[in-house]
Amino acid sequence: MERIGIVGYHQVRPELDLQMSPYECIFTAVRGALDHAGLKRKDITTVISATNDYYDGKTISNCFKVSAGGAYMKDESKVEMDGAHAAQYAMFRILSQNHKLAMVYGFSMPSCMPFECTRILELDPTFDRPISLMNSYSTCGMQMRAYMKKYGVSEEQIAEATATNWKNAAKNPLALQEAQKADMTAAEVLKSDYLASPLRELMYPLLGDGCTALILAPEKQALKITDNPVWITGVGNCQETYYFGERDLTTSLSMEKASEAAYKMAGVKPSDIDVAELFGYTACEDIILAESAGLAEKGKGDSLVAKGCLNPSGGATSGMTPCATGLNRIIEAVKQLKGEAEEHQVSGVKKAIASGQIGFCAQNNIIYVLEGGN
To answer: Which listed site, 39, 129, 140, 272, has its alpha carbon 20 to 30 Å from 192?
Structure first.
């Protein structure tokens, strides 16, 4: 099977209230990815977007973004999930040998819609949604409480990991400006108001308007475009039960299964991974996902944060753009492999993983194994 390479990317820096129209924002990301790869729109054969009708307030909302996304008179489709899922769909199209170059972008403007209210529609309509108690905050609080109780992890430990995410975001030039807090401390995190105990306000990411795009190419084409592509050597995708009450929130079964598949495809072990860019809504969820991916012993994942190999970019704390956050994790992993991560560069990175998710408490996880070199 021919390898798939990442040959171009661009992220519009998120803002709390981005002063761009949706179309200008998408165009900027897509045009930036093309310029980064030295390509023109005519070179792209398929475009996959990650957007959401509920977030956009329109049915079949991708039809309005065809021109801005570079898809005019081209094969085009949409994935109403995370951008990392859209990248997998683009991979399938390339591996089908029907397409040579795929553009993938993830976009949303949460300043223009009630994101947290909209997310409630993700809940099971028969058992979970009618309770009217479950939402982004309460479920994150439940997840954190369950994890802390099972493994004897203190609120102070979670706060310390959270503060590290904020400090990492301060080194990331593409982080939301309001997320760049180099002087954040665990004590400050613990002083912030509760959203849903033990989840505090500073433990939950800020939502940012933005768009992220990347370009995928089959091996022969990738090597013509750049002499330093990053290869997708493994990918795994898994979803847990839809009924929230049946899940063990102290771990992530979907991440365990997805990472097993990705490692097997890539022929690597968890110990081979140098950097992990994982999409968790909170530092606690980052830790749970890392443990489930085999990177640390259960209950000990906060050590990865301290070492600096888990979310050196700040993860979702650097600014969470729905539908684009997983793509941001992929791009940050790519930068680490190419030595382009500037102040948050980790030395000696040869292999990295990046993940995306959807659903409450990471119900569905997708993970990529990425490697550099020819």
So the answer is: 129
pLDDT at 246: 84
- Residues contacting 319, CB < 8 A, separation 6+: 14, 169, 175, 176, 179, 205, 206, 207, 208, 210
Pairing assessment for the beta strands 275-277 and 351-358 based on DSSP bridges: parallel
The model's pLDDT over 88-135, given as tens digits with 9 standing for 90+, comes to 999 999 999 999 899 999 999 999 999 988 998 888 888 888 888 889
Q: Which amino acid is at 110?
A: P
C-alpha torsion sign, points 36, 10, 233, 230? positive
| pLDDT digit string, tens, across residues 170-225 | 999 999 999 999 999 999 999 999 999 999 999 999 999 999 999 999 999 999 99
HSE value, Cβ hemisphere, 13 Å, CA-based, for 129 = 11
Cα-based distances in Å from 146 to 137, 293, 294, 331: 14, 19, 20, 32
Q: Which of these, 223, 12, 35, 5, lies nearest to 105 by C-alpha position?
A: 12
Chain center to CA of 212: 11
Domains of the chain are 4-115+207-225 (3.40.47.10)
8 Å CB contact between 313 and 175: yes
Residues in contact with 69: Cβ distance below 8 Å, sequence separation at least 6, in sequence order: 26, 27, 30, 47, 49, 62, 76, 103, 105
Q: 3-class DSSP state for residue 110?
A: helix
Q: In this structure, how many other beta carbons lie within 10 angstroms of the beta carbon of residue 178? A: 13
Cβ–Cβ < 8 Å for 211, 105: yes
Q: pLDDT at position 319, please? A: 95
Cα separation of 137 and 158, whole Å? 16
Q: Which residues of 128-152 are buried (b: 16+ CB within 10 A; e: fewer)?
A: beeeeebbbbbbbbbbbbbbbeebe
Euclidean distance between CA atoms 135 and 125, whole angstroms: 13
Confirm if 335 and 314 have CB atoms less than 8 A apart. Answer: no
Task: Classify the C-alpha dihedral 55-278-27-179 as positive or negative.
Answer: positive
Determine phi and psi for 235, rounding to 5 degrees: -150, 140
Measured CA to CA, the distance from residue 178 to residue 181 in angstroms comes to 7
Peptide bond connecting 198 to the previous residue in cis, omega within 30 degrees of 0: yes
Question: Looking at residue 1, what is its pLDDT?
Answer: 66
